[in-house]
Design goal:
The chain is an alpha+beta fold and 273 residues long. The chain folds into 2 domains: 148 residues, no CATH class; 73 residues, no CATH class. The longest helix is centred in the C-terminal third of the chain and has 11 residues.
């Protein structure tokens, strides 16, 4: 395998960086978790259906690939909206012990609006997809003693806390760095997420990038000079509109097909049987 050039060892580039007053970025400061790609993160904001056993539990809180998440049951009936769960509370533990745990929708969104499927018994058990603002489970609040929450508090006050729970404050308290780096920059409820599609100048960007790599695959070193169509420009984080150089990589067809979530390419090069 070809050894990639280490520009940090080149005096010319280090001097140029100093003249530009551009400090080196520590990987720990990047606005994403090494366990998860940006594409997966956007999916998690929208909501992802998972078994509870697929989640990590740390300090009674739920994490998916290192990201703090909330849970709720999506399929309900009109007279009973689900609660938003933020911890392994008494309710979830009892369901788990009784073997009654269902698949949950998980999300790292910082608002309490969630898509739910409202069942209609009178219409042959059909479901209507709607958005509703959910109250946070009081057992969860008690489990983590959120801002002193407990059963000693007057019932009406407990209900008010459940209905006005601020997920932004929750993230700032338990995953502050992630919140500061990423979540606060995400479109919130009522805003549109950027469309994950190629920019209008993508053909030019891709050509220039592959040319800068001398038409060689950055992973296996294959020379594609005489078959330039065999060399692709890959988006590392899965976001097709993120054309920063740090997010691009020139890969031959086979190496590109071997990347996560590229099954469609694997089929074309015969990597799947």
């Amino acid at each position: 395998m070809m050894q990639l050039y280490n520009f940090l060892e080149e005096d010319f580039f280090n001097q140029l960086r100093e003249q530009m007053q551009a400090p080196l970025i520590d990987e720990s400061e990047l606005p994403y978790n090494a366990q998860i790609t940006y594409a997966e993160l956007f999916d998690l904001v929208s909501g992802q259906e998972l078994e509870i056993d697929q989640l990590e539990i740390d300090g009674h809180l739920f994490y998916h690939k290192g990201i703090l998440v909330s849970l709720y049951i999506q399929d309900v009936y009109k007279d009973s909206l689900p609660k938003l769960h933020i911890a392994l509370c008494k309710t979830l533990q009892e369901m788990k012990n009784g073997g009654r745990l269902q698949r949950y929708m998980t999300s790292c969104a910082t608002h309490r609006h969630r898509e739910i499927r409202l069942g209609k018994l009178s219409a042959g058990n059909s479901f209507e997809l709607v958005k509703r603002q959910l109250d946070v489970c009081q057992n969860c609040l008690h489990k983590i003693s959120w801002q002193g929450f407990g059963w000693h508090i007057e019932k009406q006050k407990r209900i008010e806390i459940s209905k006005t729970f601020d997920l932004n404050a929750f993230y700032r308290n338990y995953q502050a760095q992630f919140y500061e780096d990423f979540i606060k920059n995400l479109p919130q409820q009522g805003q549109n997420l950027p469309i994950n599609d190629y920019s209008l100048a993508w053909k030019s960007i891709s050509y220039d990038y592959r040319k800068s790599k001398n038409w060689c695959c950055e992973q296996c070193g294959k020379d594609c000079q005489h078959q330039r169509g065999e060399l692709h420009t890959h988006h590392i984080n899965g976001l097709k509109h993120d054309n920063r150089l740090i997010n691009l990589r020139a890969l031959c067809y086979r190496c590109h097909a071997a990347q996560p979530f590229h099954v469609h390419l694997k089929k074309k090069v015969g990597l799947l049987r």
